[in-house]
């Protein structure tokens, strides 16, 4: 079969990532989440300017929670983008294209880098502002990276839902569940499974970021592997699955030491 019938994956994925990234940034769902993030950041800035002794733990939580919500909105936006073919009744036309479905899924997954970059720039601005007004824990600098990886991971969740449960109602239900279901107030080691967990040491925070990144790659491989698994998806799924297990083992064993409080 000639090369024109099977174009190289790299250029196809890159082109799709640029196109899908622009579509995600223009999505009303993404802008709704971004508005929540800006509102939470505005509340934090107002508190930091108005109070005599603002603190990171007491005032910055509104910014953190609002960006977590923005990441959930990105999940819904990616899910809607993945279901665009079904809404427009163009599944058969796109299946006839020379690019395999795995390339289209990979392009949409890479397109989530665009909202991840935008939200991370805003998070970084909020952290820099906080550093000028109050005492910010050094580990909080990793919150910027955590936000970017969280957006990618939840974007991959949106892809998995679109692949295995292709209904426009599933992602909003999952988003609502993520918003409502949270671990209890008493810290426990298993709470590190929660993607929104924030840890108090550089090492554990870095491991949690690695855990989220491994989950993102695992979900992306699962989404791109349907209807037919290929060797590439299998390798990525196995390697990322091992990384998830290893990172969780380290986190669960290290987040609640035998002596001392849980580092959550």
Describe the model.
With 264 residues, the chain is mostly helical. Helix 2 packs parallel to helix 8, helix 4 (61-82) packs antiparallel against helix 10 and helix 9 packs parallel to helix 11 (202-224). It contains twelve helices and no strands.
Radius of gyration: 20 Å
Instruction: Decide which structural class fits the backbone.
Output: mainly alpha
Spell the H/E element sequence.
Answer: HHHHHHHHHHHH
Distance between the termini: 55 Å
Number of strands: 0
- Give the oligomeric state: single chain
Shape by Cα distribution: globular
Per DSSP, the total helix count is 12
Largest sheet: none
- Specify the helix fraction band: over 70%
Helix and strand arrangement:
Blueprint lengths: L8 H18 L1 H23 L5 H4 L1 H22 L1 H4 L3 H5 L5 H11 L1 H21 L8 H23 L5 H11 L21 H23 L6 H25 L9
Helix pairs in contact: 1-7, 2-4, 2-8, 4-8, 4-9, 4-10, 7-9, 8-9, 9-11, 11-12
Brief sketch in words of this structure:
The chain is mostly helical and 264 residues long. The chain has helices spanning 9-26, 28-50, 56-59, 61-82, 84-87, 91-95, 101-111, 113-133, 142-164, 170-180, 202-224, 231-255. 72% of the residues lie in helices and 0% in strands.
Tag the structure with descriptive keywords.
264 residues, mainly alpha
């Amino acid at each position: 079969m000639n090369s024109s019938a099977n174009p190289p994956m790299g250029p196809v994925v890159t082109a799709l990532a640029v196109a899908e990234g622009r579509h995600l940034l223009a999505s009303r769902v993404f802008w709704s989440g971004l508005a929540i993030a800006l509102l939470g950041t505005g509340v934090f800035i107002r508190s930091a300017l108005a109070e005599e002794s603002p603190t990171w733990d007491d005032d910055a939580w509104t910014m953190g929670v609002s960006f977590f919500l923005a990441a959930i909105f990105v999940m819904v936006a990616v899910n809607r983008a993945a279901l665009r073919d079904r809404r427009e009744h163009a599944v058969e036309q796109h299946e006839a294209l020379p690019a395999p479905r795995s390339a289209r899924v990979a392009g949409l997954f890479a397109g989530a880098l665009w909202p991840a970059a935008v939200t991370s720039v805003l998070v970084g601005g909020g952290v820099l502002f906080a550093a000028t007004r109050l005492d910010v824990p050094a580990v909080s600098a990793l919150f910027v990276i955590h936000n970017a990886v969280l957006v990618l991971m939840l974007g991959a969740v949106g892809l998995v839902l679109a692949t295995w449960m292709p209904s426009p109602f599933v992602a909003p239900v999952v988003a609502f569940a993520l918003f409502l279901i949270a671990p209890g107030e008493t810290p426990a080691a298993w709470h590190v499974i929660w993607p929104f967990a924030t840890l108090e040491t550089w090492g554990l925070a870095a491991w949690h970021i690695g855990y989220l990144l491994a989950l993102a790659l695992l979900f992306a491989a699962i989404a791109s592997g349907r209807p037919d698994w290929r060797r590439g998806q299998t390798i990525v799924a196995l390697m990322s699955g091992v990384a998830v297990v290893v990172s969780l083992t380290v986190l669960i064993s290290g987040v609640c030491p035998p002596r001392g409080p849980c580092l959550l």
